[in-house]
Amino acid sequence: MSVPGPLSTDAQTLLDGAPCGLMCTLPDGTFLRVNRTFCTWVGLSEDELVHKQKFQDLLSMGGRIFHQTHWAPLLAMQGSISEVKLELRQRDGTTLPVVINAIVRHDGVKRHELAAYVARDRDKYERELIQSRKRMEELVAETRRLHDEVKDRALLAEQMIGIVSHDLRNPISTIQTAAAMLSRGVPAESRDRMVARIARAGQRADRLIGDLLDFTQARLGDGLRVRPEPILLHEVVAEAVEELALAHPGRPLRHVPSGRGECHADPSRLEQLVGNLVSNAMSYGSADSPVTVGSTIAADGFSITVHNFGPPIPAETLPTLFEPMTRGTHAIGSKRSVGLGLFIVCQVAKAHGGKTEVFSSAEAGTTFSVTFPLSPR
Question: What is the CATH number of the domain that holds 73?
């Protein structure tokens, strides 16, 4: 195998002074000739490279893999390669990004001639391009998030308008009708009924407005506000059940406590939670079966359950049961719900660091279970 002959002084000076790295190698990568520029880049002398090292030995690990899997097959098949970006390992262990062109020469001996160009500016440009693309993707993601937030707020406004225009109209209409009748003068017994109707309508309107405020706070704020304090759970639940029994005369409602001890929670929120769950059980449970409210204190937390018998909750309804504006399809009687009760139950549990679950079957009935830590996180 012959080796390239010596160059003239002028030719050697021209090659050594070239602003690019010039190399001549055997097909296996062994250096036959290198110019001074390339030697300076890698920090090795011509004597340390020629006939002693291979081109691929100076590449980074990724470059060596690329050389074996792509470079060598392509060069053998095409006879040339253009603008391949690789990293050269320098004597001090650092790497130098370069772009390399290669061509196969046949003049009695098959050789590869390579020209390398430093690609720091190109490398910097590519990195900036990648960063710009990443920033663009982040901006697109943020734009989508803001778009979804605007859609969510628009949906919220639409839902609230629907609630106020429809559900709040009923108690207001009752108040107006009763007030008009009272203004015309009615017998004493009728007057008492009208006053009672006005009071009940006012209470319904007040509850509806409270639900709307909670709904708005949960959806647009940081969640429901709670003020935890040391409480006796069974006493709080018993008082709530006692008041609810008066609101649902003729419907069996009982309280079953279990365990002893003190816990930390917002008592008014727990009463609201019990009220919503009992109202749901009264609306969808069997009218001749009892609604049972359980309060349990354990070593690692406490829980509130509400159970009723009646038609089971359809399986397709379960995934969206705790979403706002969700109403059941088999409510007993003509009582309508605004569809926020179970959503608020879930938010009360979440505000205390708890969770809500539901179990429903035709045989066992329906049980809503809300578990809490002894102290909110």
Answer: 3.30.450.20
